[in-house]
Amino acid sequence: MKAMLQLIVAAACAATLVACGGGDKTPATVVVAQPAYKMTETKVGTGDLVAASGDTVTIKYTGYLYSETATTNGNRGAKIMSTYDNSTTFTYTVGVGAGSFTVGSGAGALSSVGAGWDQTLVGMRVGGTRTAILPDNLGFGANKRDAVTVNGITYAAIPANSPTVFDFEMVSITKAVIIPNEPAPTTLVTKDLVIGTGPAAVNGQTATVRYTGWLYDGTRENRKGAKFDDNLATTDAVLPTVIGSTDTVTGFNTGIIGMQVGGTRTVIIPPALGYGATARPAGKYGIAIPANSTMVFDITLVSIK
Description:
Chitinase A, domain 3; 2 domains; six-stranded antiparallel sheet
C-alpha cells in the first residue's frame, strides 16, 4: 500500500511541477482581457460626403488605454496620443489600414492604424465625432510603444495587446476616384484633338504621320494603357503610309481619312481592324501586343500628297 501511495504522489508532482518544487518555472503568459468593439456617435456631421472605403480622410483624434474601472469616463484610461495637443491633423486612406504614427523623437512608429479605425470612420460626415472602444485585434495588436513626451506632454506607454479608446473628429473627406471599366469598342473610334488646315486626306494619297500607340485600358479615363511604340523623337522618321493600302493595319489607315495637315486625332482600333489574333513582340518600350488587343493611337498628320 505504501508503494502505491508513493506512486500516486509522484504522479501528482509530475502533473503540478511547480507545486512539487521541480520542472519549468517560466511565468505563464499574461492574457489581457479584451472588451467588445463599441462605437458611439457623439455628434452627427453635416454635408453630402460620407466616408467610405477607399476615401482619403483627414481627422483629429485622442487615444487612451482602455480601463475597466474608469466607467464614469467612458473607460478612458491613460492618454496615449492626441492631435489636439499639438494642433495637428492626421490623413490616411480608409479601408486599407494605411497610416502609421511617429510620436516623439526616437519613439518609433506603430505599424498601422488598425482595422477598428476603418470600421469606425466609415459612414461619418464632416464635423461628426465618434468614440470607439477597440479590442487589440482592431487596434494596435501586438505592437507596443514606450512612454513618450512631446512638447512637454507625456503620453503613457502602450503595452502589447492593449485595448484602446479613441475619440475621432472628421475634418474632411476626399472621395476616391472610381473609373468603371469601359469595355473596348468593337468598331473604329476616332476623336479629333486638333483640327488641321488644308484639304482632307482621302484614299490613295500618301500620308506621313507622327504617332504614339498604347494598349487599350478601360479603367483609365483616356483609355491609354501601356505605351508600346511612337516615332516622336527628332531622330525618328515620319511614317509614310498609302491611305487605303495594307502597308499598315486597317484601322490605322482608315483612321487617317478626313484628317487635315497639322491635325491630331485619337484612334481606337479594335482587334478586327488591328493585328487580330496575331500577337506582336515587344518594341522600343518593351511592351508586347497580345493577341486580340485593342489599340489606341494619337496620330498627327504631317503631310499628304
